[in-house]
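Structure ticket #2291
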Amino acid sequence: MRYSGVFACLSLVLSIAVTGCGTAPPLRRMAAEAASAPTVRIAPDGVTRTATLSVLTYNVEGLGWPARSGRKQDLVRIGAHLAALRAAGKAPDVVLFQEVFSGAAKRAVLASGYPAIVPGPRRTTLHIRMFTDKLPHRAKLRKGEIGVRLTGSGLVIASRYLVLLTRSQAYGRRSCAGLDCLANKGVMLARIAVPGVPVPIDLYDTHMNSRRASHVAEARNLAAHARQVTEASAFIDASHDDRYPIVFGGDFNMRGSQDRWENFTRYQPMRLVHRACMEPGSDCKVHMSWDGDEPWVDT
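Resolution: structure written out below.
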């Protein structure tokens, strides 16, 4: 019975690999002169100028069959809706995508019409080697911990502005737990140039280890998540230029987990958008839940 379970697992992951590898990651390059300048506001002092950058983080749930089915039409609508928003001048300037695995998901990103689109870590992207000790509990083949990545990270950044450079880093082989180990999850950087803004802006996107969806013990997926937070922080430290503004978004998989939140804030010195927008005089907006005293844990 044990061997039949392992065989079923290997058959499943092979099917995922076949469905996920048929379409190349979405990629689109734009010419520098093609980017339109944002609206610039001049302060009463006549000197200070400000511009707004809108960023959407979007997990499109683009898993391939048999991990997920029935998403094709939803993904078509996602691409069409973003394209319609762009045509109306109401689309976010940047979209940080996660779970762009299936062919339908990749086509949806391209259909959004963004002129600059760059993918994150691919299946063969090298892993960071920060942790060598084992995670709590035993590795389980039947839970996807087979030692091989079958897909890329599923990360994509789409921008209305020119992407100057990209960098990607896959999380370590001992920094994933459960079914998450089938994807080469990691973190990516896209540095964009906004016309009229004197310096570039660094955009980071990630998708961290899930909780129940990983199908392994809480202690194991929590430890994997903590390692990924540490590795993401190291990647940002190594790739970010402190002269430039920075935005770090993605699917952090921290909803309802105080432990994950505490680990994240321990290694991430950046200001949380929710907290910044709560300050008097703040001109920013967050279109997410504000339930409770700590909405950053609820969302």
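Closing remark: The radius of gyration is 20 Å.
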